Each structure stands twice: as C-alpha cells, then as structure tokens.
Amino acid sequence: MADAEANVALAEAAKPDARTVQVLRDLANRLRIRAIRATCASSFGHPTSCSSAAEIMSVLFFNIMKYKQGDPENPNNDRFILSKRLSFVDVATGWFGQGLGAACGMAYTGKYFDKASYRVFCLMGDGESSEGAVWEALAFASHYSLDNLVAIFDVNRLGHSGSLPLENCIEVYQKRCESFGWNTYVVDGRDVEALCQVFWQAAQVKNKPTAVVAKTFKGRGIPSVEDAENWHGKPMPKERADAIIKLIESQIQTNKTLEPKSPVEDSPQINIVDIEMISPPAYEIGDKVATRKACGLALAKLGHASDRVIVLDGDTKNSTFSELFKKEHPERFIECFVAEQNMVNVALGCAARDRTVAFACSFAAFLTRAFDQVRTGAILGSSVNLVGSHCGASVGEDGPSQMALEDLALFRSIPDCTIFYPSDAVSTEHAVFLAAKTKGICFIRTSRPETEVIYTPQESFQVGKAKVVRQDVDDKVTVVGAGVTLHEALAAADALAKQGISLRIIDLFTVKPLDVATIVSCAKATGGRIITVEDHYPEGGIGEAVSTAVSMEPDILVHQLAVPEVPRSGKSSELLDMYGVSARHIIVAADSGTGRRSPGTEPAPVTPPDTRLPAVPDVLYAATAASLGQDTAAARPRLHRAPTEISKPTPGRHHLVTEAGRTAATEP
C-alpha cells in the first residue's frame, strides 16, 4: 500500500506545469492543421486519423521520448512505430497489425542485446486490434518481460468503413491487455496532462510491458467531422479547409515549442559488416548430411564469427536444427513459439538500425503464413534472413501440409530478395555466411533428406553464380537442378553415361538472382536443350525462372519437370518418382530430347492408365484407395501422369515446354 501511495505521489509530482500543458495542446492543434493542409494539397491522406492521435503525438515527441532531433537513426534514441515510414519510424507497418511485433523486436534488442536505456513506443489504431498478429505480439512481449515497451491503442471507435466491434468499450480493451500480462492504463486521449502522467508511470514499471488505452475521437477538433462515419482516408473539402484551419488556429494560445530530452548514450557501438567464415566447412565428399542440419551447424558457427548474430524459431528448433545455435549461444536465441507472423515481425524489429543479423527459422511451408510481413520488410529495405526447411515432396511421410511447394514462387515475387537453394552441406554453410552479408530479404531453402556432399571444403560460392558440376564437350542436354533434385540429376547422368550419353549438370545455388549467363552458355553448348527439375510446383519455381531468363534467346527449348499436383504421404524417394522429378524421369526427358530411348525407361502409352510410367509402390496405391474410398485398382489412374512429349523447336522461335507437354512459342 505504501508503494502504491508513493507512486501516486510521484505521478502527481510528474505532472507537467500549466505552461507545458498549454504548449502541448497547441502543438497538437498545429499537427491537426498540418495534416489538413498536407492532405488537401495532395488530395489524399488521413486527416481524421491524424487528428484523433494529435495529443498522443505531441506528448510523446515533446514531453516523453528522448532523442536527438537532427539524428533520427541514432542508436540511443527512443524508438517509435507508426504505420507511415518517416524519419523517426524504423519499421512502417503499412498493413494493419504488424507494428507491435516489430516493436517487440526492437524492445527485445534494447533490453537483452544492447542492454541500453532507450524505450520503444508503438501507436496502433483500435481497428487493427482485430488482427491476430497483434495478440501474438502481446503474448510475446509479456512472456519476455519487455518493460521498455509501450503500446498505445488509439480507440476512436471508427474503422475504415464503419464502426468497430467494441466501439468505445474501453474496459474490454483494458481487460484483454491485462489478461495477456500487460500493465494497462486507461486515459482520455485528449487530456495531455493525463497522458504525460501515464507515460511517466509506464517508465517506472518493471518486468511488464505497458499498454495505454486512449479514448479518442476520429476527426477530433474538426466540426461536423469529429466522430462521424464515412470520413476515413478523405481530405477535407478545399472549400471548407480554410474555415476549419481558422477555427483550430483560434484555439492556439502560444507560439512556443518544447525541446525533446536528450537520450542516454549507452547503446554499444557495433559492426555487422565484416562477418567472415572463420574456417572452411568440415565436410568430406561423400558424407551424407541433410541441408537442414548443415544449416543449423552453420548458424552455430556463424554465431562465433559475430556476437550480433541472432536466431529466432517458431517452435521447430529440433527439426530446423536451430537448436544447435541455441546450444552454443543461448542468450542470442529467441523462441517465438507457433506464431510465424510475429516471428518475422520480431526479426524485422531486431534487425532495425542494423543492430543485429537476424535469422528466422521454421518449416518453409509455415513461413508462407508470414508472406505479408516479408513483403512489408522488402518495402522497407530491411535485411532479414529466413530459413525454410522441409521443402518439397521430399519431406515424405508428413504429407502435403508440411511440404513447401509454393515457397519459391512467393519469395521470387519479393523485390530484391535473394534465394539460396543449397544442394549439400558445404554449399549450405556458404549460403548462411553469404546471407549474413547480403542486404535485403534472404531466403535459404533447405531439405529434410540426407544428401551426399559433392563439394570440397575449399570450394568458393558467390551470390548469383551457379556451379556447373558436370560437363563434357559431348554433352547433349543441360539439366538444371537444386537441392534434392540436383542429386537426382547426377544419378540420371551416371545412368546415361553408361550408355554413352553425357549430360551437363548445373547447380543453381541461388534461384534469385539467377546465373543467366551460365545457363545460356551451357544451353548453347548442348544444342539449345534444357531440362529443369525441381521439388516444387511448376508455377513460379525454377522452371519458370529459367524459361523467363532464356526467353529472348533463339532456339533454346526448356523442358520443365516439377511436382504437378498435391502430393500424398510416402517415402521421399517414392514421392520424387511418383510425382515426376526423380532420376528416371530426367532420363526419359533427356532421351526425348536426344531422339532415343534408354532401355527400361520407355514411357508406356497414355492409355490405358494402368500402364503409364510403372513402378509406383503398391503401398501408395493402397493409401490413395483408402483416402478415396475405392479399391486399389480404381486408385491407380489418380497416381499416374501421361509421359511428356517434347516438340522440336522451330528456327527463330522460342519454345517453353512444360511437363504436361504444352508448348508455348513466341516471336523473337
């Protein structure tokens, strides 16, 4: 009781004087005027939303926050998160619900990595509190006792198109925040004196984040617009703007301003640029290592190269092998639990102002849930590394819900995103170290099955440079693969070599940027014939990337092998064969391109279905039959695809051939 009374007394003492209160009110009104003028000039913007938060902004920036005005990116400054990207806003949330997760990352970095005094403030609208990512972030901040974090809910009742579900039920917001373990205050968002007090009180609270639930009105201070619907995102009519501005100006009593407080300069000076591989990879050719495990080992090794490397995981650390990093660097591992959207937001916040080199790990299929967060990070130019394991049908028994077969398409669509797709343990280690030094969003795609090491420890790798792992002057076809399909390509090459047919094999290493020069050069050396093979759906994957890259080159034919439909559960090798991306299918495609057939690989006629591309295991027929409620014989047609026919290129035209045998031709 004595402590509570003491806090009340201190809060009273922290009240701003009358002059400061008036200046803060006047600054809020000046903000309203500027919002009205700016949106009228551009004929676009959100003056009503700006008006509801004007007092909150004036109190934060001119009474509470500590920062250097002329140096907005100073590492000692307090942080502020808003939906707009401004000089003092490190991570603009853009789409609703993303700001608090990024603020969590900044606060975590400040408390546990920088061990500094700066605080983090996140202003949110009540509309975005419907987003699940907000509640993921609330749970995260409470779990990690982020007492340097303040979330402000601007509860103005109205959303984009109408009133919100809770409208002005402030007590419900309060109870929800408190139930998540947050220290919570309810305040009149128009009362600058009360705002000053609650923000001061928040700074005294230890081991809990603070939520400030501020009751406001949309369009505050604008006659006939305040608390009215259908004004979201609309500038004031120009014929009314001058009168509105004059009315607001009449309420301003002083021309004074306030200087922000200077920050405590206790953030460490850091360097995340000069991170080098401390020793060559410790693998020998022929070792069998899953690239997901090699990635975990590489992250642990990278952690010794720089104490600013951090790893986040979404409760998959024993599958992604990020637990190997945690074992060696427990203080730099962040468990984000099953909340991938928040995990990516936290990573974006941790990486802001180049305070850390962040790697966020999960199954690649689960990372697709956070595509919107990745997209936002790319818009901001953030540097965050995402590691997606368990890609493709080669995941095996876990089935299609765990198989990432769309991830390359998603990440290829992200501007300036670098996509690493290593094929063995050596290239995986290089991918991790290169990602740590690469600006922008990076995605490392790793696989579940063990694959043989094919590179020596001395092999060097570069972003955007493929490896030609097998070549001869008599090569007939160029095969482009990555990950597990590279090893299928090598197996096909070994089989065909015994028959006197040689294949040129390319390991892409990076799917984006693509090594177009190497692909074109190899294609021209092999009669213009390319086969792409990938553990991914045809749409947006390696085949489409290569086809686009060579589309302006005459007389190059691209034959795409990809997973054509939603896979079923089974052994990895069986599924690769069942869905057309195994060595056997590469041999068939290569034979078609060379005008011959290898013994034992001839594709059967299209009809009857039972005779097409045999050797699908009976256990898979039985599983399919059970799922369809049919007998095994009836299920067989569902598990077969017609063999691919490759058409001959017409001189001067560009042909792209898909697995389904469709040929598209365009004029050069």
Automatic annotation (TrEMBL):
Cross-referenced PROSITE patterns: TRANSKETOLASE_2
EC supergroup of this enzyme: transferase
Top-rank lineage group of the source organism: Eukaryota
Family of this protein: Belongs to the transketolase family.
Assembly mode: Homodimer.
UniProt-listed NCBIfam families: PRK05899.2-5 (NF004559)
Name of this protein: transketolase
Annotated source species: Galemys pyrenaicus (Iberian desman)
